[in-house]
Amino acid sequence: MNLGRVIGTVVATRKEQSMDGIKFMLVRHVDPEGKETGSFVVAADAVGAGPDELVLVATGSSARQTVATDKRPCDAVIMAIVDSWDVDGTEKYKK
Amino acid sequence: MNLGRVIGTVVATRKEQSMDGIKFMLVRHVDPEGKETGSFVVAADAVGAGPDELVLVATGSSARQTVATDKRPCDAVIMAIVDSWDVDGTEKYKK
Amino acid sequence: MNLGRVIGTVVATRKEQSMDGIKFMLVRHVDPEGKETGSFVVAADAVGAGPDELVLVATGSSARQTVATDKRPCDAVIMAIVDSWDVDGTEKYKK
Amino acid sequence: MNLGRVIGTVVATRKEQSMDGIKFMLVRHVDPEGKETGSFVVAADAVGAGPDELVLVATGSSARQTVATDKRPCDAVIMAIVDSWDVDGTEKYKK
Amino acid sequence: MNLGRVIGTVVATRKEQSMDGIKFMLVRHVDPEGKETGSFVVAADAVGAGPDELVLVATGSSARQTVATDKRPCDAVIMAIVDSWDVDGTEKYKK
Fold it and tell me: Which chains touch D (3 or more CB pairs under 8 A)?
């Protein structure tokens, strides 16, 4: 999974029908120090993530292993909201 | 998913038979600021995207989860046409 | 899919048995301007591509969705031979 | 698979329900010389890896082929703890 | 697939049980000129590859399509040993 920060949403009315009701979030990748890396992904939201929240994103076929995304043309999903993480014993982020 | 702009089409007469009728689009990737990143992908079109439209592209096995691409050797699909997106509360693109 | 040019072939006698009869092609990636990008892939040939031909390559599990590659340990397949493509209304390649 | 070093853990209370009980580890990638490459991944732990241990990480759909991760939205898993490796006949790491 | 050279082996006693008996090989990627590219992968060996041999590596779910790796958490497999390859009519490698 990748760490990321929710920076916005994408609106798309015309889409593959199975994607109706899926919320598309813009997520910027974040490194273990908490810095944005410059890369990003558009991910479906399976957990009700809000703006600015730190999240975990699963990609590829694993992105379809949620109730919201099963059998849908979706290659990235927010499947967890991050509370905290640590690196070498030091807390690097706490919500 | 990736954000992209449709920049052209690819014509291929000789191909795996299951790909008959699939339209191949050249899509340049676009970042959250709306700038082209330089990378691109050839994607099957599942939603009737036209030239210059901003789209979402799903890749990998998820690219086969549309009516048009099911069970086909297709690793990228346009599965939505983008109306708008915002970053940190600011609208960055509107159709 | 990726655009590429067939630059050669790879011969491998000792291999997973299911790969018998599969032809391995060296394919250099090509960008929308028709320039080689420097990266490459070894792809199974599902369409009878010849040297120097411009082709489309599908990767990942989608590379197994051809008659030739089904259920085989093959992660890249030439599934179409390119006739032409255009970018922003200008033809960039014609066979 | 990738070589990596476990550098920390990620805590996430709100997540896709099927991920309950999965431990998320921060893993920095390591090259054959044993040097960290700068890239990293958040991986589910299937083998009880501890801090600082060198591990193998499998990604993509293969990350779901463990008892712990089967059918879950998980795209990276620690599936082995490394005892040692050698390069061109020289031992580069020993636990 | 990728071209690579077997540079070593990785020993891991503690691992997902289904990986028992799988041999992990360190493989450095090689370009069509035969030069190492700097990147590498740890791949399961399905064909009895030895040190220094040039091989083909399949990744992703395709890495599970061998007798040795079926249904295992394995995302890279050596599925062929390379005898030779040519680029633009010139032989670049011969075993």
Answer: A, E
* CB-closest option in C8, C16, C74 to E32: C8
Q: How distant, in Å, are the alpha carbons of B61, D53, D77, D79 from that of D2? A: 22, 14, 10, 11
| C-alpha to C-alpha distance for C1 and B50, rounded to whole angstroms | 18
Residue D11's φ and ψ, nearest 5 degrees, are -105, 130
| Gap between the Cα atoms of C48 and C29, Å rounded | 18
A9-47 exposure pattern, b = at least 16 Cβ within 10 A, e = fewer: bbbbeebbebbeebebbbbbbbbbeeeeeeebbbbbbbb
- In chain C the domains, ranked by start, together with CATH numbers, are 2-94 (2.40.50.220)
Q: Which pair of structure tokens corresponds to residue E5?
A: 């050279």
User: Are the Cβ atoms of B51 and C89 closer than 8 angstroms?
Assistant: yes
Backbone phi and psi for residue C19, each to the nearest 5 degrees, phi listed first: -90, 0
Rounded to whole angstroms, how far apart are CA atoms B53 and B48?
A: 10
Q: Is residue B20 within 8 Å of B45, Cβ to Cβ?
A: no
Instruction: Say if residues B14 and B68 touch (Cβ distance below 8 Å).
Output: no
For residue C3, the surrounding DSSP H or E stretch is: strand C2-11
Q: What is the pLDDT of residue E82?
A: 98
Chain D residues close to A89, C-beta within 8 Å? 8, 51
Residue of B14, B28, B73 with shortest CB distance to C58: B73
Record the pTM: 0.97
List, for residues D52-84, the tens digit of each pLDDT value. Answer: 999 999 999 999 999 999 999 999 999 999 999
Which residue, D1, D3, D41, is CA-closest to D25?
D41
A61 vs B61: CB contact, 8 Å cut-off?
A: yes
- Which residues from chain E sit within 8 angstroms of residue D56, using beta carbons? 10, 12, 15, 24, 42
Q: What tokens appear for C28 in the block? A: 């250099």
Q: Which of E8, E15, E66 is nearest to E42 (CA)?
A: E8
